[in-house]
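user: can you give me the structure for this one chain? tokens are fine.
assistant: on it. calling the predictor now.
[tool input]
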Amino acid sequence: MDLQIKEKTISLIDSLKSTCQTYGMGNDGNEYKIITQVFLYKYLNDKFGYEIKKLDERIAKAEKWEIAYSELSEDEREDLFDTMNPDIPRLNPEHLISHLWNQQAKGDFDLIFDQTMIDIADKNIDIFSTQTTQNTKIPLFERLTQYVTDEAQRAPFARALVDKLVNFSFEETFSEHYDFFAAIFEYLIKDYNTAGGGKYAEYYTPHAIATIMARLLVGDDADLHNIECYDPSAGTGTLLMALGHQIGEDRCTIFAQDISQRSNKMLKLNLILNGLVSSLDHAIQGDTLVAPYHKSDDGQALRTFDYVVSNPPFKMDFSDTREKIAAMPARFWAGIPKVPAKKKESMAIYTCFIQHVVNSLKKTGKGAIVVPTGFLTAKSSVEGAVLKKLVDDHIVYGAVSMPSNVFANTGTNVSVLFFDNSRTADRVVLIDASKLGEEYKDGNNQKRRLRPEEIEKIITTFRNKEAVDDFSVAVTYEEIIAKKYSLAAGQYFDVKIEYVELTQEEFEAKMAEFKSELQSFFDEGNALQAEIMKQLGKVKYE
């Protein structure tokens, strides 16, 4: 059944994308808004129906629950709302998909459709909105038909969308507790995190890396409660969802910030699908470096967290805001990258995020951040200063170098640094996993992905602090300092010389082979020299 519902859900997503294409919005900049919001509307409609059936026997027994619900008095509806979990949206009968279906014949159906979405957003704004750093509420839904340029096509477009939503229900996923919405979310947004995803697409974190980070930070059977998790460059929330899943969604609160409007919309969807509605209020859109939203109770210092994860952009032009950031030396203790005379977009913004992640850890907090592998051997500038402090203060306790081409559309080699602000580690685990993974094609891109057994190998080796030939070492901070602060595992591997036992005959045969090869090199060299002299002679006499 799990497979069947997955196939139906994927079919729904494909049909919504097809409808967008039919009405001229395939790969349009606004397509992701339509796909994600219509999908979310369907999800919430079915979630609402599932929950009210548990609360009212008449609705549960009705052939069509929507009709039974519409026959309730206003007082009865309010009583239902009072007993419902706050994480469930409040929908009136006119908000339901079935009601829209019955309104399709009306000529202004596009206005009816849009107004329905706006009404739902307004009614649920206290629970289901996110916000900006300036406390502007970002509602659950917005008007969608406005993105169809031809006004005459807007009503047919809205009808086509509603047509796609009535063929199946998500209800069985709620009753069976299928854990498949993480995979569905990945499928839903995949077209918006590849070539069309802009600068942020290349920093979309592969699921395998998110899993490794979460499992190494949390452990596999930790009994945790009231845990606070934070990502200052949250994107669509992949790292936070992996962390929440590892801890238990009901045992943690998610805090997030990201500069991208698009990411915030997708993060909102991700939180709802993963049962983290109560964290929506902490999903902030805005520039984390200039205006970090999450502060301590006094509103002055940064709020600190149990777990902090981040996959920041590695290089970006932030010259417009550099001076504002540079005016906060206490936050950015290792400094801010200078603005290059050329290629402003090559500013190493990730160094600012490393500093912010460390500043955001509780005294016993743990963190993990994705960095370019070149950072592991940084010697100068801000990079070198950051690396030195991480080692000198015993904050870093591990580094894992990942295979190349694991990201969507960049060849940048990446590593993951692990921090522990309790600073109690006696050795640092360094793993070179760059040779792991299998090749596969994703469109025109040649990519690599870690296989399940390779993920387990990384996790087990790291936890056990094992030394494995050409793969891992566990070294002291003194050894790292002696290696000029290098966190590259390869610099600690012993150079091995293989000795092979040979018989006298085998030895003589090998020597004869070497002599023959050497003679052929001499012969080729002499012939080449003679040809050059011959050509030079010709030039001289001409």
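assistant: here you go. Residues 2-177 form a domain with the Ferritin fold (CATH 1.20.1260.30). The chain has three domains: 2-177, 191-492, 502-542.
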